[in-house]
Amino acid sequence: MSADTRARRQLHLAAHFPGVGNTTVRADRKSGSRIDFASFEHLARTAERGLFDFFLLAEGLRPREHQGRIHDLDAVGRPDSITVLNALAAVTDRLGLAATVDATFNEPFELARRLATLDHLSEGRAAWNVVTSSDAFTGENFRRGGFLDRADRYTRADEFVLLARELWDSWTPDGVSRPFAHHGRHFDIAGEFTVPRSPQGHPVVIQAGDSAEGREFAAAAADVVLTRHGTLEAGRAFCADVKGRLAAYDRDPGDLRIMPGVTFVLGDTAAEARERAAEIRRRQISPRNAIVALEQVWGVDLSSYDPDGPLPDIDPEPESGPARGRVGVADPFAVAEEWRALSRERGLSIRQTVVEASGRQSFVGTPESVAAEMDAFVTAGAADGFVLVPHPAPGGLDEFVDRVVPLLQERGVFRTEYTGTTLRSHLGLPDPVWKG
């Protein structure tokens, strides 16, 4: 390997098991159960065969509804992510195991204990993807109920992560347990933690969010940031902004990894890849799903509209208060105008507009072009790596591992073997300093 190759910036890869959202094509022969352990095992083993950093599971605390009907992808249920990852720890050796767990509807002692247990069982491969929730729809499943304002969500999450780290640090590196006490705005607890300091010291903390509050929270508390995939220029601006905030928390740019979530479609030629991508988008957005997507923007019942007809000529009516089982958008008027402009420009129906506006894949092309484009993003400082979301799960990742990973390795930008045993070592992150 030449000195020039050794100097190439290395990229990081992770795999996300899809289950929430419209990326999955359920009818694809490579799609499987969202409950059967064999599905999780297949995708995790494929990711480990591809030498990925970690495997990410999402969390759904309540099936989403629209007009009283459970969303198609939620109808089979959502298993607990940490439970699944504990089982995956037994059938994988090096792959990081990341659980998405809500900081709004969980408690620090319980969650810190479960994550520390996963880190022990996996010998240092655990991660926590911190998310928050503000909707009363989900809150109805919990004793407290209700919802938190946006600002309160982040202050609770920030204190939650701080307290979890206090709990993990309440055992010394040489195995001595010490009492803990925390008296804060959201939590007031004291006692003794039951799990010794884990192999990584602290499980890796992952955070997803593009808002100003989310970026500040990431700079203060996260090891990995999940974000949306966009243009190279937008990626560079996001990375510069978030990493530029680290100094205020006595952190260096190398203390944080930024990894956009991406999809991919491969073909033997560019034309074949584009054709496959278009077909996937059509299969992702059914006529009913197109109307549902429209209603999430307009905020009113549009079931009488023809999916193959024109967009509504009425203005959106944003709902007040927290959302009930629907995704919604931050600025429905702007989205509606954007969709109308797209429809007018290209003469698109409702379904065609939704397909074009919300169903695009991140990387479409030959394995060679996809490898080159990913490399270019990382080299330009627009990302540190990517979280791949395969369209069919669990079999959708196989093609990427078989056809793209070897090309990234040939370019000298991706590992050819695991050199460490913990997730922190895969990510190139420093071990946490014990705060005695």
Polypeptide structure, described:
With 436 residues, this protein is an alpha/beta fold. Helices cover 38% and strands 14% of the residues. The protein is built from 16 helices and 14 strands. The protein has helices at 3-6, 37-49, 81-89, 108-121, 136-139, 150-168, 212-221, 232-244, 270-284, 287-298, 332-346, 350-358, 367-379, 398-403, 405-410, 423-427, and strands at 12-17, 54-57, 65-66, 69-70, 96-102, 126-131, 180-183, 188-191, 204-208, 224-228, 257-262, 264-266, 363-365, 385-388. Helix 3 runs parallel beside helix 4, helix 4 (108-121) packs across helix 6 and helix 7 packs across helix 8 (232-244). It is globular and about 70 Å long. The two termini are 43 Å apart.
Low-confidence parts: 1-6, 320-327
CATH architectural type of the largest domain: Alpha-Beta Barrel
* Proportion of residues in helical segments: 25-40%
As for the number of domains, it is 2
Widest sheet: strand ordering? 1-2-5-6-9-10-11-14
Distance between the termini: 43 Å
Oligomer: single chain
Question: TL;DR of this structure?
Answer:
With 436 residues, the protein is of the alpha/beta class. It is 38% helix and 14% strand.
